[in-house]
Amino acid sequence: MSVLDNFDTWKDFLASRLEQAQSQGMGQETISNMAYEVGDYLAKSTEAKNDEEGVLQDIWTAASDDERQSIASAMVKLVQNEGNTN
Asked: 28-85: per-residue pLDDT in tens?
């Protein structure tokens, strides 16, 4: 099963990569920029595997560059917040 098949699996994957980046000393801005690059790649190069990814892809496509940066930052915060509640 691919990490893209299930949205919860995708968020767990992102959280794991986020923890790894933070443990290597990457700052929040660098992490958000990397999230932007990943989001841009996924929107352009992959097919949504579930409804949540489809919505994110549609929003990403409709968004301006600044809005995409905000979406990427929000995804980082989403997995950070979920990690703090578990």
From this structure: 888 888 888 888 888 888 888 888 888 989 999 999 999 999 999 998 898 888 766 5
Residue 48, SS3?
coil
pTM of the model: 0.76
User: d(Cα 11, Cα 62) in Å, to the nearest integer?
Assistant: 22
As given in the structure block, the two tokens for residue 71 are: 């979406």
Query: Residues 32, 69: contact at Cβ < 8 Å?
Result: yes
Count of domains observed in the chain = 1
- Domain carrying residue 19: 7-85
- 45: domain CATH number is 1.10.760.20
DSSP alpha helix (H) spans, 1-86: 7-23, 28-45, 51-62, 65-85
CA distance 83 to 69: 21
